[in-house]
Amino acid sequence: MASRQTVRQTVRETASSGERHVLCGQGEVPPGTVKGFRAGNRRIALACLDDGTFRVVADTCPHQAARLSLGSIERMWVSEAPGTHRRAENRNVLLCPWHGFEFDLETGGDPCVPGRPDLKLKTYRVEVEDGQIAVYL
Which residues span the domain enclosing 39? Predict the structure, then answer.
């Protein structure tokens, strides 16, 4: 039987790292796509970027509650000077399927209207572990 200290330590580690949920196998979400899941009592969107890395965000658009997992992933448009723009090489946005709102998959923020907490998605830690995609809530 585990000691009370061992049990308390395990609970503390779980709380600090988040509750682990296995979503799917690594190959089940192809690069450039997004898929919705339910983990615990949350709806989340798993995005697989073109380079095969993963991001997880809340699956509800803060604008009018659309399911973002029905949206698409695009490279973010960036500008260094007025009148110029290009697609970023390593920045991606998730587009809302209803009204086209964009959300940075790194920060959850809206890159077009920075600093608006009401237009920010919750982001979650995601890891590939033994060929499985795990999210920590």
Answer: 19-136
